[in-house]
Amino acid sequence: MARFDPIALTEALYHWPSTHGEWLTGIADAARGLDLGEGILAYTLHFAGDHIGLATGHYRTPEYAARVPEWVKRCPPAVTALANIPLGRVRKGGEALARENARRTGMSLGEYVQLMGDASGMAPDANFIIGGSGSDRCAMVLLAKPRRVLAVAQRHFLETFVAHFVGMTRLRRLLGAAPESGSPTNAAVLDPKGRVLHLSPEAQDAAPSLTHAVLRSEQARGKLRRSDPMEAQRMWRAMVEGEYSIVETVERDGKRYLLARKNPHRLGSLGKLTSLEVACAYHTALGHSQKFIAYELGVSLSRAVRATEAAVRKLRLQNKEELVRVLSHVLRAPADASS
Predict the structure, then answer these.
(1) Do residues 62 and 143 both lie within one domain?
(2) Per the confidence metrics, is the pTM higher than 0.70?
(3) Which residues of the chain have pLDDT under 50?
């Protein structure tokens, strides 16, 4: 079995090949050290009205990957959305999951199984994780031989990694083509030493945080990736200040640049809130811990807590639990969310 390299997987995520399928295949291949015996599938979904955009990639499971488009084509968008709720934690397939999804979609278990076929509960021994924001979903499925399970540390890694996966899924759709250092839409351009080479007016306040994030990711890619790979991955921020993703580009002269691109969480009907408050409210409604939210958004724990509390207050709610009610239309119908 291949040795698992968390940083190699994170690097694959921030690599920018020309097609979404190539990108996802690179991610699945870089995750091969997590293979539980039957291969790995990675896929993304984008909901736009009655249309669902799907892309897949895999490591050693072409048959399973080929079935996914059939399932998506067969199922109404609302059912696909509800079967792909972005809970951000590792789950297992099987009858319990099928019952949960059937209940969520308002079907009987028999109706759900008939509609979904052998996708009704994924493969019984599969481990999978689904992330998402607004109209985007991303997932990694580890197909397992009987009694093969993930180690606890590997589960925790995937639950951190999905924050990166969500951000890059959204950013790739928004940008389309690979970013370049000379693009006027870059919020900032930095070198690997964290020096700011370009900074847009709107990103002035975020400059120190962007530099800090670049230095952390460069440290993660150094000696730490071998001495403590899990800690190295935790140092690599998925987002900065809740608004920016940092992607790498290598120019024709061989120089590396780190590009900060605006990549906000966008949800409809929450215009009273700042972008950070929207993001914190959304993830709180999904059941994510404040610690996870802070990591996902690249802010301190105290700042995430304050932003969540501000969202509750501005929406005139009694407590965090009411956020589930307020955001239920977004969680149930992601196509209603703005891009």
Answers:
(1) yes
(2) yes
(3) 335-339
